[in-house]
Amino acid sequence: MTRTGRGGSHRSKKKRLTLALAPVAALGLAVPLMYSAGAATPDEVANDCRTDSDKLENCEFVDVQNKADSLGPNERVTTVTDNCGISTAATKTFSGTAAVTRVVQLENGFGVDGGTKLGNSFFEIGLKFNTQEINIKRDDTTSSFSFSRSDTVKADHIAFFMWSHKRTDVSGFLRATYKEEQNGQKVFFSPSEGAATVHVFYPQLLKNGTPDGRLWLRNVKCGTPQADGILGSGNSVRAEPGFEEGGANVTDVEVPLSEAGFEPK
């Protein structure tokens, strides 16, 4: 009886010991699995694609949707002409340059070099959207035009030219294929398969190869917060409202590109 009691007590201790060790063993297995699974997160996929990592076999952009004739940023492309305190309008000469390039916008805000695997993919996707009706800029070089023309600055106003280029916005996701399997697979997506949050903006070009878009003369009433802000910034770059979005103190007049007298570059 005594032996049987001791034997039962001994077996019970073994069971308790096994139960105590089991969670530790499970935790030890979980660590390498978690590390492996995190080796290709969406952010890391985007970064590997952007930097053309040698871990990649390939990286490509998969388009999901597109929109032609969207407008790019509103840019001031000439210096500011000051006609403040003058009671009559004045004719002034404006000279400026507007430039465009293909822009890639990943979720983290980084661009992509055109010489990478991903850059080649963007070029190939661009071929798909280059049609007889819309000529787009597929590579990452710059196209620009310069213009010089005389226009009217209103009495007690400042004036300058604004520009917003036309572009085709193609959105989709990145598909990366790694040379070595990570957690049992080689293909990963950023941000996810089927997403439309990676944007490629292809500038649209005129038949002569110069950028297409909207060019307009903006007059701003002197002594207003809008004019003071512009004069206070000198000729530095600053955010400007779009065409006919400046408010009551701002007058915009569009100039057709055919009348701008621009010279291709």
Radius of gyration: 30 Å
Tally of separate helices: 4
Distance between the termini: 104 Å
Helix share bin: 25-40%
Mean pLDDT: 83
- Quaternary state of this entry equals single chain
Q: Count every beta strand, where a strand is a DSSP E run of 2 or more residues.
A: 13
What form results from the Cα inertia axes? elongated
Low-confidence region ranges: 1-38
| Secondary-structure element string | HHEEEEEHEEEEEEHEE
The main sheet comes to: 10 strands, antiparallel
**Strand percentage, roughly?**
35-45%
Number of spatially distinct domains: 1
Structural class of the secondary elements?
Answer: alpha+beta
Keywords: Signal
Signal peptide: 1-39
Protein name: Secreted protein
What can be said about this structure in brief?
Residues 1-39 form the signal peptide. The chain is built from four helices and 13 strands.
